Amino acid sequence: MTISLYAASVPVFKQMLNALSDVLGKAQAHAEAKNIDANVFLQARLYPDMFPLVRQVQIAVDFAKGVSARLAEVELPKYDDTETTFADLQALIAKVLAFVEQIEAKQIDGKEGIEIITRPGTPKEKRFTGQSYLLTYGLPQFFFHVTTAYAILRHNGVEIGKRDYMGAF
């Protein structure tokens, strides 16, 4: 039995983005309940050379929209990454969920062999087939940043667990 590229991408992105939104909501509520400046969480990092929470969320949503758009061969939406608050991050996630929601299985399935080029014309240019792009690059990158966002918040005392990370499935 085979699995479709769509089934391995869009529903996964939707599940995890909704879970990330819920986790951010819990973080905001925690900050308010404990009288903690929200920026403590928004700018928190696991290690000094890692990106803060805000950037982790921005990159996660970039991968959800980028992978979906490239596999569907539709125009990739561009966002400025100017988010500074929990509300900004929630709006960004909602915007990306709305974009991803529009992509249908027929736009992605069968695209295993298409060529996807990331960072074309730069020293970091990479060439993938649609399937390898999703499975060896897009999903691992997406999960890394979602997981790191979760870990930053958990490390900083937000009461979240595995069910929060996984979301509804």
Automatic annotation (TrEMBL):
Q: InterPro entries recorded for this chain?
A: DinB/YfiT-like, DUF1993
Q: Which SUPFAM superfamilies match?
A: DinB/YfiT-like putative metalloenzymes
Q: Which PANTHER family match?
A: BLL2446 PROTEIN (PTHR36922), DUF1993 DOMAIN-CONTAINING PROTEIN (PTHR36922:SF1)
What is the protein named? DUF1993 domain-containing protein
Tell me what organism the protein belongs to.
Answer: Pseudomonas putida (Arthrobacter siderocapsulatus)
